[in-house]
Amino acid sequence: MTTEQSTASADAPQIPTDIRPQDDLYLHVNGEWIASHTIPDDRSADGVIRGLFDIAEEKVRDIITHAAENAGSDAAAEEARKVADLFASFMDEDRVEELGVQPLEGDFAALEAAGDHDELVRVLGRLERSGSPGALAAYVSADAKDPEHYVLYVHQDGIGLPDESYYREDQHAEVRELYVAHLARMAGLTGIDERTGRDAADIAQAVLDLETKFAKDHWDVVETRDAQKTYNRMTVDEAAQLAEGFDVRGWLTEVGAADAPHVIVGEPSFLEGLGTVWAEASLDDLKAWAMLGTAHSFAAYLHSEVVEANFDFYGRSLSGTPQLRERWKRGVSLVESLLGEAVGRIYVAQEFPPSSKAAIGELVDALIRAYDSSIRTLDWMGEATKERALEKLGLFTPKVGYPDVWREYTAEVRADDLVGNVRRATEAEHERQVKRIGQTIDRTEWLMTPQTVNAYFHPVMNEIVFPAAILQPPFFDPEASDAQNLGAIGAVIGHEIGHGFDDQGSRYDGHGTLSDWWTEEDRARFEEQTGSLIAQFDVLVPRGMDEDDTVNGALTIGENIGDLGGLSIAWKALHLRAAERGVEVTDEDGRSFFEAWARAWRTSMRDEERRRRLTIDPHSPEEFRCNQIVKNMDAFAQVYGTQEGDRMWMAPEERVSIW
C-alpha cells in the first residue's frame, strides 16, 4: 500500500455506524469497513473479491519465480521454463526500454504498404492472428444451434472507447476530449505522426471521427446480450455481400477461416454499415486508425512512456486509478493470460486439497436438488415447460477446482523478446482455435484457469464451472457453518445454475441448443416477472453518485435473475440439508446466511470506475446485488422482522420470486 491513497469518493455521504439490517443490510455488514478503507492507488476498486485476487496473485508470483528451478527436458519442465522466461522477458526493463517501439515496426510497415482499402483489410486479418485489433472481432466457440461442433463467430469492433454510447452521449463529452488528446499523444510516442507525415492532433481527430462512424452502427449493450438476435448464420458469400465495401472474404482468408461453411454474425446491420463506412473513408485515415489500434494492443509491452500514456487514459481517466500497478504484478497478469494452465497445474497441487473439491461437490448437488424441488412447485410455469426445465437441470455438468485435462502450450518463449513472446503465444492460440472450426467440441476444456477468482455458466455446453481460487474464505470455509457457506459460495453456485434459466440462458435447452422450448404462455409469465425486476433496478442510484447515474435494469437483468435465483435456491438448500440432518434452521442461521451474502459483495469503488461499469457492466453495483435482491425474499423479511417503514421493506405483492 502506498502512502498516497484515496477513498472511493471524497464527496460520498458519511456512513453511520449504527445501521440496522432492516434499513440497509449491505452497510450494516460492510459500512464500517467502507468508511475506514482506502482504495490502494493501483486499483479502481477494492473489496472481498479483490482480496482473493491479491492472495492468488501472490501465490502465482511464488510459482513463477520458482519455475526456473524446475526447468528441464520433460514436458512439465519445459512449460516451467516457458513460464520463467515469459516473466523474465517482461521484467527485463532495460531490454524493453532499449527496443522502444521497434517491435511494432513490422506491423506499421505492413499497414503503411497497403495499396488500397481491400489490401488493408487483408493486412488487418494477418495481424489479427498475433493480437492486433480490426473493424471486426472473431472467435471460435460451440455453435449455439449445433452445440456438438465449433463455429466462427464474427462481431462488431473497431472502437477504442468502452462502447458506442461514449461516442454519442453528452455525459461522455469530456472523455471524448481526453481520448483525442490521448490518441495524439500515442501517435507521437509511437512515431505514427512521423511515419505518416501528419500532425498528431490531425491524426487523433481523424481517428475519433472514423470510430464515431463505426460506433453509429454498433449495437448497444442491451441488444448485444440477446442470444437470438445475435445468432445470424451466414455463408461467407452472404456475409461478404452484406458488407459490400469491406472485403470480408479477404479478411477471413487471412484470419484462417475462409473455408468455413458458414459463420455466425452477431450484428448484421453493423456489418452492412461497416461496408459503407470503410469504402467512404480515406485510406490514410484507415491506416492511421489501424496503426493506433496496433499500438494500443501492445502498449503494455513497450517502453515506459508508452505504458504511462496508455495507463493515463485507460486507467486514470476512465477508471480513476491514480497509480500503475507494480511491474511484477503486471508480469504475473501476462503469464496468467498466455500460460495460465501451466501455472494452474502447480497452483492446484499446492492450494486445493481433494477434500475441498468433495465438499463443493456436495454443495453443488444440494443446490441442484433444491432447484429441482423449486421448479416442481412453481405456480407460474406449466407442466410441459417444467418437464423440459427439469431435463435441462438434470443435464447440467458441474466442474469444480481444475480441469481433468491440462492445456499444452506450443509457442516458443524467449527471455529477451517480450513482444515476440506475446505475438507467438497469441498466434499459437489463434491457430489452435481456427483449426477447430467444424470439429467436435472439447468438453474437458475450461475457459478460466484454476487461480481465477470467478465462476461461470456456459449456455451451449450447459456447464457450471467453479475455479479453485474462489473456493476459499469468505466464500467457502470447511470450518464454517452450512448457513455461512450457503449464503456465500452456495449463492454463487445457485447464481451460475440460475444463469441457465435467466432471460438469455433460458433460451438454450438441456443440450445447449438455442431453441424455443418454453410454451408462449410460460414465456409471457416469465417476462412479466423479469419486467418487474428490470423496473426495480432501473431507478436505483449507487450511494454517492449523481441522480442520473442509475442502474440499467435491462442490461443487468440476467445477472439480477442469477442473484435472486441463486440466493433463493441457496436458502432452500440450507433447509434441505438441515432436514436431512434432522435439525431446524434457526434465526441465527438465517442471519449468518444473509450476512455471508452481504459480506461477499463488500466493495469500495472510485466514482469514475462506477460510472464506467454502470454504462457497460451487466452486473449491478454490489450494494444492490445485496440489498435489492434480499428485499424480494420473504425469508429475509421473516428473519429480520422487517415491516412497513423499514428501508429494506418491500410489500409482498411487489416482490419478485422467479425460481
UniProtKB/TrEMBL annotation:
Name of protein: Putative endopeptidase
What SUPFAM superfamilies does UniProt report for this protein, alphabetically? Metalloproteases ('zincins'), catalytic domain (SSF55486)
Gene Ontology cellular component list: plasma membrane
Q: Does the keyword ATP-binding apply?
A: no
Name one molecular function that GO assigns to this entry. Answer: metal ion binding
Keywords (alphabetical) are: Hydrolase, Metal-binding, Metalloprotease, Protease, Zinc
Question: What's the cofactor?
Answer: Zn(2+)
